[in-house]
Design brief:
The structure is a single chain. The protein has 113 residues and is of the alpha+beta class. The chain has helices at 20-35, 96-112, and strands at 41-46, 51-56, 65-69, 80-83, 89-93. Strands 1-2-3-4-5 form a 5-stranded antiparallel sheet. Strand 2 (51-56) and strand 3 form a beta hairpin.
């Protein structure tokens, strides 16, 4: 009679992304930095190994900060990293909040003046 064929299962290409609470926290910080006049543009790069959020002072420059999520480092140094303009790792950790702390402190200094 009729043969039943299974629906082909596509292999998901491994892509790292931000969860909704993570992206909300990052975009909240971005919005406050824009309101303070420090950042003007951002870029999100989702790849196989890492997800990157880059914040720019001006569009044509290198990013002032990059927030990087690498799940492969979850059990070692921590999956989150804050990377400066020169490419140096400023902070690394297992949770997003403490990694964003140096940028938030900088925002408090600018607003407090």
């Amino acid at each position: 009679m009729s043969n039943v064929h299974p629906f082909p299962v596509w292999q998901r290409v491994g892509q790292v992304g931000f969860d909704r609470p993570e992206l909300t926290r990052i975009l909240d910080l971005y919005g406050r930095m824009v309101a303070a006049g420090l950042w003007r543009d951002y870029a999100i790069d989702l790849g196989r190994d890492a997800a990157l959020f880059s914040a720019f002072r001006r569009t044509a420059e290198r990013p002032e900060f990059r927030i990087e999520k690498r799940p492969a480092l979850r059990h070692r140094q921590g999956e989150w990293a804050l990377i400066g303009e020169a490419g140096t790792v400023l902070k690394r950790g297992h949770e997003l909040g403490p990694v964003l702390a140096p940028v938030e402190r900088r925002l408090l200094k600018v607003v407090g003046d």
